[in-house]
Amino acid sequence: MESETQSDASFDDISRYQAILFESIGAEQAGNVPLPEIISTTDVRQEANARSEDIFQCYDTLHKILQRHEATIQRRWLKKNRRQRVEVLNNAWPSMAGVHRPDFAALRRESEAQVAQGTKLLDSFMWPYINQEDLSTNNALPLLLNARGLHSPSHFAAADLQAMQLGIKSNAIVPIFLDKHIIILNGFVENDRKYGELICWSGNPTASMWMEKKKQFLAGDGLLILKAQARLLSFLVKCCRQILHDHPEASLTSDSVPILPDPQFNPNIETTGFESLRTMAAEAPYRVPAQLDLDGIASLLAARTSAAEDHLWALREDPGYFTTTILDYKEHRLEIIKDLNGRDHPVLGRHRHNIFWARILGTVVIESYLCVELFAELSHQARALVSLQKRYAGDICPSRDLPEKLLEALLRFHHYLTQAVKGPLGVLRVSAVASPPLRRHFVRKPPADRDSPKVLVVAKLGKKGAVETELMWLLHMLWEKGDASFFDEMPLFVDELERMIESERGAQELITSYLSKVIGDISIISQCLNQLALYQPWARTWESDLEERQEKLKQEYEERTEPWVQMHLALKDLFPQTIDANEAIRLGDPTGNKIVYPIGKRRNKKNVEDLRQSERRLDAFWVEIDKAMAAKVSRFRGTAVQALLDSEWRILQRTGEWEEPENQHQQSQSTLHTHYEPIPSVYSNTHPGGSSEDISQPQKIKVKTRGTPRPLSTQALDVEALQQEDDRSDVQPTFSVDARAYNVFQTLFFDPAVTTTPGEVPWSHFLHAMSAAGFTAMKLYGSVWQFQPTNLNVERSIQFHEPHPRGKLPFTTARRYGRRLNRAYGWEGKMFVPINK
C-alpha cells in the first residue's frame, strides 16, 4: 500500500507533465488527436483486475456449458427463424447494431467534430462484429460460441484490439494513458487469473523489451481489450442461457452432466457450392484467429503470376485480345471526361490523337511487363518463406523471437507488398473516376497546356443515390488513404467493398470489368498483408523491426527494381507524346478497323487473310517493343519477362496459309491447321548494353489451313519435335464428363473447321466443367476465381476472371481461357468425352 500511495502522491505532477506534453503536440485542437484520459496506476490496476476476474468467471461458465450442451445449442439455433434469433441477441445485448460492420456506418454518420466531442456509437466501433445482420445467420453465433468458449481469452487479445482499429484511427476510441506500464495478455494457454496483470517496465529489462517490441500491450490498449472481452463473454453466456431456457441453471455447468465430443461444423460453402474468400473473411471475427498460411499465400501468388504471364502472352499472340485491352484502357482514361465547358480534351482532336494512343499503348505495355515482374518477385519470396518456415519449425515459439533469417524474409516480403499495392491503388484512383458508369459525377478542368499529360478532375455538385454514395466513399477511402498507416486497415475496406458489390446489384452495375480486375489485384495483395498480420504475437513487433531495417530494405528494393525502372524509361521513349506517330504507335493504333480478327468465324479465304494480316501487324508492333528493351534495358537478362519470352515451350500460334480444298467433302471434314512461331530472339543474341540490330526474326512453321499439310522445313521440325517430346513426356488423361461440361470444353477448345460458331458460356457452367475436370474453385475478390487441382497429377493453380456484369463468357474470352488451359496443363478438346459415349 505504501508504494501505491507514493505512486498516487506523484500522480498530480505526472498528469500535469503529460497534459503539457499532449498540448504541445496539438492534442484536442481541431483536426488533431483528442487528449486521452489520464488515470492513476491504482485505478488502472483495479479496473484491470476487476475485468480480468469477470473474464475468468464468464469464460469458465461458457466453457462448461459448451462442453455439455454445444450440440443442443447448435440444433436449436438452426431451428429458430430470424425474428427469434434477433430477439435472443437483443435480450443479451440491448440496442445491438443492425447492420454488418456498423463501424463503417458510424464513420460515415458522425463528423470529425462529433467524434472529437465523444462518439455516441462507441459499441459499433469497439465490437463491430456484434450486429444483427451477421449474428442472425446460421453460422456466426455457433462459431463465436465455439471459438470463445473453447479457447482461452489470450488467443484473441491481438485480434480484439485489431477489430477496434477503425475506431482508434478515427479517434472514436481513445485509449487511456499510463506511462511506463504494460498489461500482460499474450502467452496464456489456459484460463488464468493473472491474465491482465499490470506491470511497470521501468527498471524491468524484460518488461521494457515487451513494451518496445509490442510483445505485450500498453496499459490503454490492454484495458480496451479487457473491456471488450468481458462484455463479449458475458453476452455469450446470456445467449446460451436463453437458448437453453428449459434447462435448470445448475445443470448447465454441473459435473453430473457428461462432457460430450465437440460437434462438427459444416464446411463454409456458399449457395453456388464453391468456397468464397469474402464469406471466409466475413466469418473470420467469429473463429479462432487463423495462423499464417504461407502455403496458401505461395499458391495465390503463383497463380496470379501465371495469370500475368498469360495476359502478356495473349497481348503478343492474340490481336483480338490486344485490341479489346487497348480499347478497355481507353474507356478508363481521364482524358475521356468532358471539361467544365463540355468540351473534349485536346488530345482527342483529329490531329493530336497520336498523343492519346501513345499514352494508352505505353500504359498497357508497361503495366503488362511490370505485373509479370512484380508478382513473380512476390511469388519467389513467398516460396522462400515456405522453405524457411519449414527449416525453422522447431525453433518457432511464441515466447521467443523469430529466427533472424525468417524475420528478415518476412519483413522484406511485407515491404515489397506495401510497395506493390501502391500501383493498383493509383490505377483505381484514375480508372474509377473515368469509368463509364461513374464519370458522369466528375468534370475535367481545361488544361493550361494542351500537351501536358496532367489531367485535373473534380467532382460535380449534385445528389447521388445511396448505393453510389457508399460505393464512392469506399473507393475514395482506398485510393486516398493508401499510405503506410492505412495498410493495417486496408483489408477491412476491401472486404466491405467486396461485400457491397456482391450484395447490391446497383453497385455491381457501377463496377466495370476493368475495375473489377484492378480491385482483384488490390485484394490479392491485401489478403497477403492480412495473412502476415495473423502471425501473432510477432506481427505486433514488425513496426519497430521495420523501422530498424528501413534504409536497408529501401536500398535493396531500389536495386532489385532497377530493371523495372529501365523498362519504364525505355517505353516512355518509345511512345513519345508528339503529333507525329512513330512506327510503334502506328502499328498499335486499333482505330479505323486496322486490326480485324474474325477468329470466331468459319474459315474461308477472306477470313484467313484477315487473321494473318492482323497477326503480322501485331508481331511487328512487338518487334518494336523488343528492340527498345534490348537497346535500353541493360539488366533485362534475368528478369521474369525475359525468362517468359525465352521459354522454349512458349510458341506463338499463327494462322496458316489458305489453300482451296480439293472437294466439298474435304471442306466439311478437314481439320484446321496452324503454324507455330517462336517469338523473335531479341534477347538471346544480345548482351547487356549490346546493339538492338542483332535481332533474329521468327522462324515460321507453315502448315496448311485445309487439306494435307505441306512438308515442314528442317528448322521447323525442331519446334515440332519439341512439341512431340513434350507430348511423350506428359501423357494427358482422358476426361469423361457430363453433357454440360462437355459442351463447355468444346467451346473452350473450339475447332473452327466446324460449320457453326458456339455461343456464350454461362459462368456457372464453366465452374461446373472445371469441377468435373478435378478442380476446386474459390471466389477471391473482384472478379478473380482461383482453381486448385485436387485429383489431378498437377500442382499448379490457375486464376480466371468471372465475366462482369452479365455472368456469361463470350466466345472470344472462352477461347482465350482454353488457350491458357492448354499452356498450363496441355489440355486439348479431344481429351474430353461425354460420359455416355
Automatic annotation (TrEMBL):
Amino acid composition bias (Polar residues), ranges on this chain: 682-699
Annotated segments matching region Disordered: 678-715
PANTHER family: CLR5 DOMAIN-CONTAINING PROTEIN (PTHR40788:SF2), CLR5 DOMAIN-CONTAINING PROTEIN-RELATED (PTHR40788)
Identification of the protein by name: Uncharacterized protein
